[in-house]
Amino acid sequence: MTTTAPRLRDGVTLVVDPPVTAPFLGEIVDLWVRVTNAGGAVGFLPPIDAAMVHPVAEATLRRVAAGVDTFVGLVDGGGHLLAWCVLEDGGGGLRRHWRTVVRVMVDPDRQAAGYGRMLLDAVHDVARDRLGLDALMLQVRGGTGTEEFYRRSGYELVGRLPGAIRLAPGDDRDELVMWRRLGDLAP
Ligand SMILES: CC(C)(COP(=O)(O)OP(=O)(O)OC[C@H]1O[C@@H](n2cnc3c(N)ncnc32)[C@H](O)[C@@H]1OP(=O)(O)O)[C@@H](O)C(=O)NCCC(=O)NCCS
Q: Which residue from 115, 137, 139, 146 has its CB within 8 A of the most atoms of ligand 1, so it is best to mutate?
Protein backbone atom coordinates (compact mmCIF):
# COMPACT_ATOMS: atom_id res chain seq x y z
CA MET A 1 0.00 0.00 0.00
CA THR A 2 1.29 3.47 -0.81
CA THR A 3 0.47 6.34 1.53
CA THR A 4 1.14 10.04 1.35
CA ALA A 5 -0.51 13.02 2.98
CA PRO A 6 -1.64 15.72 0.56
CA ARG A 7 -3.92 18.22 2.29
CA LEU A 8 -5.23 15.62 4.72
CA ARG A 9 -6.62 16.41 8.17
CA ASP A 10 -8.52 14.77 11.07
CA GLY A 11 -6.08 11.84 11.17
CA VAL A 12 -7.11 10.76 7.67
CA THR A 13 -4.64 8.70 5.62
CA LEU A 14 -4.52 8.40 1.86
CA VAL A 15 -4.36 4.88 0.45
CA VAL A 16 -3.44 4.22 -3.16
CA ASP A 17 -3.70 0.72 -4.64
CA PRO A 18 -3.88 -1.06 -1.28
CA PRO A 19 -3.40 -4.82 -1.09
CA VAL A 20 -6.78 -6.45 -1.66
CA THR A 21 -7.36 -8.31 1.58
CA ALA A 22 -10.72 -9.85 2.50
CA PRO A 23 -11.35 -7.32 5.31
CA PHE A 24 -10.58 -4.41 2.98
CA LEU A 25 -12.88 -5.82 0.30
CA GLY A 26 -15.54 -6.13 3.01
CA GLU A 27 -15.16 -2.47 3.91
CA ILE A 28 -15.48 -1.43 0.29
CA VAL A 29 -18.62 -3.52 -0.16
CA ASP A 30 -20.14 -2.23 3.07
CA LEU A 31 -19.52 1.40 2.11
CA TRP A 32 -20.85 0.86 -1.41
CA VAL A 33 -24.07 -0.72 -0.03
CA ARG A 34 -24.63 2.00 2.54
CA VAL A 35 -23.95 4.83 0.07
CA THR A 36 -26.36 3.32 -2.47
CA ASN A 37 -29.10 2.67 0.07
CA ALA A 38 -28.73 6.26 1.28
CA GLY A 39 -29.50 7.46 -2.28
CA GLY A 40 -26.02 7.74 -3.82
CA ALA A 41 -25.62 7.39 -7.59
CA VAL A 42 -22.76 4.88 -7.78
CA GLY A 43 -23.92 2.28 -10.28
CA PHE A 44 -26.75 0.54 -8.43
CA LEU A 45 -30.32 1.36 -7.51
CA PRO A 46 -31.48 0.88 -3.91
CA PRO A 47 -32.23 -1.32 -2.12
CA ILE A 48 -29.12 -3.42 -2.50
CA ASP A 49 -27.20 -5.77 -0.24
CA ALA A 50 -23.64 -7.03 0.07
CA ALA A 51 -24.28 -10.12 -2.07
CA MET A 52 -25.20 -7.90 -5.03
CA VAL A 53 -22.20 -5.62 -4.68
CA HIS A 54 -19.56 -8.22 -3.81
CA PRO A 55 -18.89 -9.55 -7.36
CA VAL A 56 -18.77 -6.05 -8.82
CA ALA A 57 -16.38 -4.90 -6.10
CA GLU A 58 -14.21 -7.96 -6.70
CA ALA A 59 -14.07 -7.25 -10.43
CA THR A 60 -13.20 -3.62 -9.71
CA LEU A 61 -10.35 -4.59 -7.41
CA ARG A 62 -9.09 -7.25 -9.78
CA ARG A 63 -8.32 -4.52 -12.32
CA VAL A 64 -6.59 -2.53 -9.57
CA ALA A 65 -4.52 -5.55 -8.47
CA ALA A 66 -3.55 -6.12 -12.10
CA GLY A 67 -2.18 -2.57 -12.24
CA VAL A 68 -4.73 -1.44 -14.83
CA ASP A 69 -6.87 0.92 -12.72
CA THR A 70 -5.88 2.95 -9.65
CA PHE A 71 -7.75 2.87 -6.32
CA VAL A 72 -7.67 6.05 -4.24
CA GLY A 73 -9.18 5.96 -0.76
CA LEU A 74 -9.26 7.83 2.53
CA VAL A 75 -8.96 5.89 5.78
CA ASP A 76 -9.91 7.50 9.08
CA GLY A 77 -7.90 7.52 12.30
CA GLY A 78 -9.64 4.33 13.40
CA GLY A 79 -8.52 2.51 10.27
CA HIS A 80 -11.93 2.51 8.58
CA LEU A 81 -12.54 3.34 4.95
CA LEU A 82 -14.10 6.79 4.76
CA ALA A 83 -14.20 7.49 1.03
CA TRP A 84 -12.90 5.99 -2.19
CA CYS A 85 -12.99 6.02 -5.95
CA VAL A 86 -11.16 4.46 -8.89
CA LEU A 87 -9.26 6.02 -11.78
CA GLU A 88 -10.19 3.81 -14.68
CA ASP A 89 -7.71 3.31 -17.48
CA GLY A 90 -9.16 3.92 -20.93
CA GLY A 91 -6.97 1.32 -22.65
CA GLY A 92 -3.96 3.49 -23.42
CA GLY A 93 -3.27 4.49 -26.99
CA LEU A 94 -4.60 7.88 -27.98
CA ARG A 95 -6.27 8.34 -24.57
CA ARG A 96 -3.32 7.47 -22.35
CA HIS A 97 -2.98 11.03 -20.97
CA TRP A 98 -6.31 10.98 -19.09
CA ARG A 99 -8.52 8.63 -17.08
CA THR A 100 -12.12 8.31 -15.97
CA VAL A 101 -12.98 8.75 -12.30
CA VAL A 102 -15.65 6.28 -11.17
CA ARG A 103 -17.43 5.24 -7.94
CA VAL A 104 -16.75 8.46 -6.06
CA MET A 105 -18.29 7.91 -2.63
CA VAL A 106 -18.03 9.17 0.94
CA ASP A 107 -19.43 7.35 3.99
CA PRO A 108 -23.05 8.58 4.28
CA ASP A 109 -22.59 9.28 7.99
CA ARG A 110 -19.74 11.66 7.18
CA GLN A 111 -20.84 13.49 4.07
CA ALA A 112 -20.99 17.28 3.81
CA ALA A 113 -17.87 17.59 6.00
CA GLY A 114 -15.29 18.21 3.30
CA TYR A 115 -14.11 14.61 2.80
CA GLY A 116 -15.38 14.51 -0.77
CA ARG A 117 -13.22 17.50 -1.64
CA MET A 118 -10.32 15.93 0.26
CA LEU A 119 -10.73 12.79 -1.84
CA LEU A 120 -10.77 14.75 -5.10
CA ASP A 121 -7.71 16.78 -4.04
CA ALA A 122 -5.88 13.50 -3.42
CA VAL A 123 -7.13 12.08 -6.71
CA HIS A 124 -5.79 15.09 -8.59
CA ASP A 125 -2.37 14.79 -6.95
CA VAL A 126 -2.20 11.05 -7.68
CA ALA A 127 -3.36 11.58 -11.26
CA ARG A 128 -0.79 14.23 -12.00
CA ASP A 129 2.18 13.23 -9.87
CA ARG A 130 2.05 9.43 -9.93
CA LEU A 131 0.21 8.65 -13.14
CA GLY A 132 1.47 11.62 -15.15
CA LEU A 133 -2.00 12.47 -16.44
CA ASP A 134 -3.13 15.74 -18.00
CA ALA A 135 -6.86 15.46 -17.34
CA LEU A 136 -9.70 13.49 -15.76
CA MET A 137 -13.19 12.75 -17.00
CA LEU A 138 -16.25 11.66 -15.07
CA GLN A 139 -19.92 11.04 -15.68
CA VAL A 140 -22.65 12.26 -13.37
CA ARG A 141 -26.27 11.16 -13.19
CA GLY A 142 -28.41 14.15 -14.16
CA GLY A 143 -30.98 15.44 -11.67
CA THR A 144 -28.85 14.67 -8.61
CA GLY A 145 -27.18 18.08 -8.33
CA THR A 146 -23.82 16.38 -7.82
CA GLU A 147 -22.29 18.27 -10.74
CA GLU A 148 -21.99 21.26 -8.40
CA PHE A 149 -19.75 19.22 -6.09
CA TYR A 150 -17.40 18.53 -8.99
CA ARG A 151 -17.62 22.07 -10.36
CA ARG A 152 -16.31 23.31 -7.02
CA SER A 153 -13.25 21.11 -7.49
CA GLY A 154 -12.46 22.45 -10.94
CA TYR A 155 -14.50 20.20 -13.26
CA GLU A 156 -16.39 21.76 -16.14
CA LEU A 157 -19.51 20.41 -17.75
CA VAL A 158 -18.52 19.51 -21.31
CA GLY A 159 -21.35 17.31 -22.47
CA ARG A 160 -24.74 15.79 -21.84
CA LEU A 161 -26.10 12.48 -23.12
CA PRO A 162 -29.86 12.98 -23.07
CA GLY A 163 -31.71 10.13 -21.39
CA ALA A 164 -28.62 7.90 -21.34
CA ILE A 165 -29.40 6.52 -17.87
CA ARG A 166 -32.59 4.44 -17.54
CA LEU A 167 -33.48 4.14 -13.86
CA ALA A 168 -36.80 2.47 -14.71
CA PRO A 169 -39.08 2.30 -17.76
CA GLY A 170 -40.22 5.88 -18.32
CA ASP A 171 -37.59 7.31 -15.95
CA ASP A 172 -34.62 8.26 -18.07
CA ARG A 173 -31.97 10.69 -16.82
CA ASP A 174 -29.32 12.61 -18.68
CA GLU A 175 -25.71 11.65 -18.20
CA LEU A 176 -23.50 14.68 -17.62
CA VAL A 177 -19.91 14.55 -18.82
CA MET A 178 -17.39 16.56 -16.80
CA TRP A 179 -13.73 17.25 -17.49
CA ARG A 180 -10.90 18.53 -15.35
CA ARG A 181 -7.55 19.61 -16.71
CA LEU A 182 -4.80 19.11 -14.13
CA GLY A 183 -2.41 21.80 -15.33
CA ASP A 184 -3.60 24.43 -12.83
CA LEU A 185 -2.77 22.37 -9.72
CA ALA A 186 -0.29 23.81 -7.26
CA PRO A 187 3.11 22.08 -7.54
C1 LIG B 1 -21.08 13.51 -3.76
C2 LIG B 1 -20.18 13.23 -2.55
C3 LIG B 1 -18.98 12.39 -2.98
C4 LIG B 1 -19.71 14.58 -1.97
O5 LIG B 1 -18.87 14.32 -0.84
P6 LIG B 1 -19.04 15.22 0.48
O7 LIG B 1 -18.00 14.80 1.43
O8 LIG B 1 -20.44 15.12 0.93
O9 LIG B 1 -18.77 16.68 -0.11
P10 LIG B 1 -17.91 17.89 0.56
O11 LIG B 1 -18.40 18.09 1.96
O12 LIG B 1 -16.47 17.64 0.39
O13 LIG B 1 -18.38 19.11 -0.36
C14 LIG B 1 -17.48 19.91 -1.11
C15 LIG B 1 -18.27 21.05 -1.73
O16 LIG B 1 -19.23 20.52 -2.67
C17 LIG B 1 -20.55 20.89 -2.30
N18 LIG B 1 -21.43 19.74 -2.52
C19 LIG B 1 -21.25 18.48 -2.08
N20 LIG B 1 -22.24 17.69 -2.50
C21 LIG B 1 -23.07 18.48 -3.22
C22 LIG B 1 -24.29 18.23 -3.91
N23 LIG B 1 -24.84 17.00 -3.95
N24 LIG B 1 -24.88 19.27 -4.55
C25 LIG B 1 -24.31 20.51 -4.52
N26 LIG B 1 -23.16 20.80 -3.88
C27 LIG B 1 -22.55 19.79 -3.24
C28 LIG B 1 -20.48 21.22 -0.81
O29 LIG B 1 -21.49 22.11 -0.43
C30 LIG B 1 -19.08 21.82 -0.70
O31 LIG B 1 -19.13 23.15 -1.14
P32 LIG B 1 -18.21 24.35 -0.56
O33 LIG B 1 -17.37 24.76 -1.74
O34 LIG B 1 -19.17 25.39 -0.16
O35 LIG B 1 -17.41 23.82 0.58
C36 LIG B 1 -20.94 12.50 -1.41
O37 LIG B 1 -22.06 13.27 -1.04
C38 LIG B 1 -21.39 11.10 -1.79
O39 LIG B 1 -20.69 10.14 -1.53
N40 LIG B 1 -22.61 10.99 -2.34
C41 LIG B 1 -23.17 9.67 -2.65
C42 LIG B 1 -22.43 8.97 -3.78
C43 LIG B 1 -22.58 9.70 -5.09
O44 LIG B 1 -23.68 10.00 -5.52
N45 LIG B 1 -21.43 9.98 -5.72
C46 LIG B 1 -21.39 10.72 -6.99
C47 LIG B 1 -21.13 9.80 -8.13
S48 LIG B 1 -21.02 10.76 -9.66
A: 146
